[in-house]
Amino acid sequence: MSDWLQDWLSNEELHAPAVLVTVARVEGSVPREPGARMLVDAQGFRGTIGGGHLEHRALEMARAMLEQGGGQAHVERFPLGPKLGQCCGGIAWLAFEMADAEQIALLNRRRNEDTWRVVFVGWTASPSARSTNGCVAETSSQVERADGRAVHPTSLFDGSGRLLAGRDAPAFDRAAGTHIFQDADNRLWLADAVLAPRAHLMLFGAGHVGAAIVRALAELPCRVTWVDERDELFSASIPANVTVEATDTPEALVEKAPHGTTFLVMTHSHALDLQLSHAILSRPGAGDWFGLIGSSTKRRQFEHRLRERGIDAARLDAMVCPVGLPGIEGKAPAVIAASVAAQLLLVWEAAARQPDVSTEFI
User: Fold this and answer.
1) pTM
2) Kind of pairing, strands 154-158 and 115-123?
3) 271-296 as b/e, with b when 16 or more CB fall inside 10 Å?
């Protein structure tokens, strides 16, 4: 799920009027990518579209919408160099819309499922419309179709195209990610991809380092399954992207995990670590990343024992032990967690760049 839900709305609901600002399209060098979002209300804002003058101007415009009592969703074009004096010099198109509490609640419930928002944001040409830096947007809250049927301002679809909320909207290209498109009637639409996190970590061990890693990953775009047999060790406050599994048969979770799962083993027992390592390295295929906490000495011992259990050399070579980025030597749990989190981001971003990678969800 995108960070606008995971970070802001996991433990709260949207009550007051607010404006949702979305990076809808970019050209050249810009601070954030399409799909980055910021929620603005009378008290402040959450999320970011990249900071700097662009964000400052977007905050001003969003607050003006709130002061005016809302308005139709629309798009603004910002040449960052000529208009805002930002050295990155690209062009950003931002969509402004009044936030819908019911829509956000539905998206929050679907945080592990892909959802598409399709938002009407104006016309490319209309004599009754007001100009907004090259885009044209209606000022009314509801726009009539040519055939007389009302256009719902926002519709939500699941990953297969099934309508979840709102009304029918024009067909759009899901492979394009978040983008702006024009239909045959010169209407402009924002297609906004609110995608479930592709990265899934199965973390074995609820000790000090395991807990520190969970905290380090709490605001990152990933899902974590946190496994330990000792239920009392899990934190009282669990981040929204974490699912706890208190079980004395953790190998069963390894067996059922989808292809492409990331595994990290750091239990209280070397015997259990070895048992889990064998289960992970025995999985068919070679698409899983596996990290084992420990020293170089522990690695040598485990390699010897795992070879005796039939694990081949290629799989052992792929086992990452010790874990963490080279050059970071600190032993404090928070230091290890920061190092491991950065390592995982490298792994996940490399996987995201691979073509034709299918992801299963659990």
Assistant:
1) 0.79
2) antiparallel
3) ebbbbbbbbbbebeeeebbbbbbbee
